[in-house]
Specification:
Helix content is about 20%, strand content about 25%. By secondary structure, the protein is an alpha+beta fold. The chain has three domains: about 350 residues, Alkaline Phosphatase, subunit A, CATH 3.40.720; about 80 residues, Arylsulfatase, C-terminal domain, CATH 3.30.1120.10; about 150 residues, Jelly Rolls. The relative contact order is 0.12.
Length: about 625
Amino acid sequence: MKNLFGFVVGLFFTFSLEARPNLILVFIDDMGWGDFSCFGNEAAQTPNVDRMAKEGVRFEQFYVNSPICSPSRTAISTGQYPQRWKITSYLSNRDHNQQRGMAQWLDPKAPMLARSLQKAGYATGHFGKWHMGGQRNVDDAPPITDYGFDASLTNFEGMGPKLLPLTLKPGQDPNKPGRIWGDAERLGKGVRWMQRSKITEGFVDEAIPFMTDAAKADKPFYVNLWPDDVHSPFWPPVDKWGNGKRELYLQVLKEMDRQFGKLFDFIREDEALRENTLVLICSDNGPEQGAGVSGPFRGYKTHLYEGGVRSSLIAWGPGLIPSNNNESMGKVNEKSVFSAVDLVPTLLELADVPHPEGVKYDGESLPDVLLGKSDASRKQPLLFRRPPDRDAYYGDNDLPDLAIREGKWKFLCEYDGSDAELFDMEADRGETKNLAAKHPELVARLTKVCIDWHKSLPPDNGPNMIRKPKKRPTKALYDLKQGENLSGVEAPFCEGRKVTIRATVEVNGKDGVILAHGGDKAGYALYIRDGKLVLGVRRDWKLTEAVSSSSSSLLDGSVVVVATIGQTGKMSMSVAGKQVATADAKGKLTQPGDGLQVGNDLIKPVGKYTLTQFPGKITKLSLQFD
């Protein structure tokens, strides 16, 4: 009898595992709500994603829980608002994280969806961008496998095995490709280099054997496929190159869709997988300005307006979404208001997996909504807080600090409740008509809800990083020291001004940064590469360099280096009083959002570096603005 009982229990456990759906989450980086052609993009076609939408359900009122990368990823991984874990903007270098009042990485004790599924017998794999710890100089973060994953392969922003990008432009020797983010080689063993234009397929090629092995072992699987190729910089295949940011972005978008086809076909063409796999596709936040599009919505990445936080969600699962078994067109859900935090309890319910003991999710379980059987919404409102370092961005000089979506209403305000904005999402989803003055009682109530929620969460440094451009420091001379690190708020105001860098240096190596202000979109940097002095200027992602022809003059002990960037972009450098290089950036400097560093560049690299740490001493350094 005891053996019979054990047999029955084992048989029931096997059947229950087999009945549990396989789960795939495709989480795209910096893609706009209107970028898939099934969501209205007429400038580029995405046929593989469109087919998934046609065979599945497309959701028009799905939100992510932050308008920027790391917190959005935290929310969709934990089912909780990312502020609870002090992940409130993109994770950067150690000092930058501390300046913004953030954690250095997501605490492994967070209630990860992957860990709950892993404990219930799922095979769990993460393939793609991570960005929840382990980047720049934060090299002691936990590996991805500490968060409930059996296997991982990531990019430059995560600990563990990774794919790093080679780059190739038209006319460039294919045997001499460029490399970006090479410093990330130290963030875990198992580094492979491949063309950035093919990296999504590289992650797909890692995920497919993982899923195959899980199926052979009779285990359900949960797979994150999180590509980063539609995040700048944009590197499409050479034969599909484009002119300007927008065209490059569209070519990368189309190529990403093509590479998705391999994954989607793998699931679709296997009957067992097709009948028991749920695939979810969405973006982590809104688009970068000038690249992707937000459709009819206002705002971009970093904004709490709809364009920053509304995401184009598609759910596909022919054996799990009965409403589409006999339909030629996919179902479109225009009514259900829900978000990324809701996916965690929803997927746990679909997998028949209990919640971790003592965990209270901010998300609500909505399985019938996700499977196309209901157009209900979550019961509680959705609340948002801006990234601490994004009070001003993309031309908006005073972005709202807090926001709420409750029913048909979208409300935004400052930390203290001022500057109230109220929009009717049914009549004005583009957020063009502020109705706050017409509904004072509603505004008063929603203001209190936002402020109470904000105060109930761990604080970040947002209130101290409010940037008002009219009050920016415009002093003429800055004396700086090696190791100095200024936030974007503290850094000098350089837009439209002539900049002169004077440095006295003792060089003991061939590569390193003397000074860098800004990031890979806008800024300037003075550095040494292969023993040569380089002055780099970034304007709208394009890098212009003035490069000295020789390294000999830098090796003469203590030398004075002077670099100048004129108001129109003219660049020049001298070493020991002798001019060594000139170039033309063809336009004035634009004010970077990122900060300034002396002797390193660990945030978003301004220049094209081999190494970032300066190899020697910077005994004097000044910045003169005219």
